[in-house]
Amino acid sequence: MKLFQTTQRTAPDCLWMQAGVVPKKYCCTDFSCTVCRFDRALNRVCRQNQRLLDQGKTPSGKKGSLVFWQDRLKKKPLAKRPCIHHMKGKISFKACPKAYHCIDCEFDQYFYDHFKVHAMMQPMDFETVSGVVLPAGYYLSAGHTWIKIEDQDLVRMGIDDFGARLVGKIDHIASPLMGKEVTQGHAGFTLFRDRYSIPFSSAVSGIITQINPEIKKNPDLVATAPYTDGWICLVHCPDIKQNLKKLLFMADSRRFMATQVEKLHAFLEDTTRLKAADGGTLIRDILGNIPEIYRARLIKTFISPGS
User: Fold this and answer.
1) If both were cysteines, with which of 75, 152, 160, 191 could 198 make a disulfide (CB 3.0 to 4.6 Å apart)?
2) Domain spans, the chain
3) What is the pTM of this model?
4) pLDDT tens track for 44-55
5) Does 102-307 carry CATH code 2.40.50.100?
């Protein structure tokens, strides 16, 4: 589906328009509402209106009539209350029985299991910074985990290429069960290699809605394809805007990664007298290529939550 690029309508109706909250607005972000300024502006006004109503006051002016698009649709009979995936043009009409509380919806889980999860992720573009691969459109954390926004409040999470090169071979993975809560900057999942447990911090706060089934069968995917088949989990993150403020994106990601590689070179040369690069490229399986005496320190320095 093409984006709206000319004066001719080529984009789908915005969710707010479909719900009847606004008379005319088309979607220019492929329903990535989190990055849409129009969606953020309307949500802000709706929150202000709701606060006034909670105080027993009546919102005034043209903006006083605005309500959340979900609330507008909740007033319709069930048969006329469309599933959000229908509104986004992904499926034929299906009614929403959960009042747009998608995290509790079995169909929503089914949709991501069969239409999203099993489809191989393909970042739009890659670049290399100091021998480490960075994909366009991904947000990085200082603990070497990444997220990619999949839907309004849904993100996919994994480890970055720096973390993958550091850990190398992975024996198995311990991650929270579906429905469990994770907190940004705190331990989210743990990779195991030999007798070492390597905790990675969660890049966002939210609820785990899916664990990648492929990494249970082949945990090494996390190291060999960290941005695609080796993703770890899907997280429902209702406060995504606030979470993004603490993550790195684009130029900030590049600067951070260049600094981390430089720090790694210094660490290895000062402690082990070994080189981290081979022909200018950061080697893979750094953990397996340094003396055992330095391994715990390496993990604590670069990977441990809060680093």
Assistant:
1) 191
2) 15-72, 102-307
3) 0.64
4) 999 999 999 999
5) yes
